[in-house]
Amino acid sequence: MSKDPLEELFGPAPEQPQPVPARERLAQEQAERVRTAQLPMEQQKRDAERPRGASAAKPWIIVGLVAVLAIIVSIVVVNLVRGADAGSGSGEASDQTAEPTTPPPTTPDAPEEGEGEGEDDPEPPEDDVPRVEVGPTMELPIPQWGVNGQLSSKFGSTSYTLENGNTELWLDSALIRQLPCEGNWGATQLAEGQYEVLRPAESCAAAPELYEELWGLTDAFVQSIRPAG
Question: What's the pTM value of the predicted model, to 2 decimals?
Fold first, then answer.
């Protein structure tokens, strides 16, 4: 069987479309009309919903604007009231300011004649002996003076020497040696039967409490000196 020259050149011809039955074509046309009709309805629905949302938001926008305006007005009113109060307060302060007054000069009273004359200068007070707890005592015989004294046991083991023509009794004990300042402690014989405390003239800044204790104990010893019997 011989082939068609055109078929050999261009290939076999495409198959002819089969005719569509009338029912199917009618169904396709109806579906197309329904789809085409739905598009305008959806567009109209969207257009109808848009202005409704905008109109619903308008009342809230109006309420917000009114609230903002009310706040601004209240701030302005408060500032005006404060300014008025400040102005009135400054005026009152200026009215109450008074000029300073200077008191009249006073002259000191002249001393009366004879006042203050003939008065002796006050004598410096005598040194007060510190009060200390003497505690138990031990007898210290002083045969050179013919007396005995009661010495506090706080002194510990104590010895003495007589100096300056046997008029000064210098004590030596462990307690006295604890004082870092130099000086002699004991008794001075003034006259027969009279004695006074012998101590450094100046206090010991390095140990003031020990100085006062030695002063009080030495004074108690001097007050206890009695003739040996």
Answer: 0.46
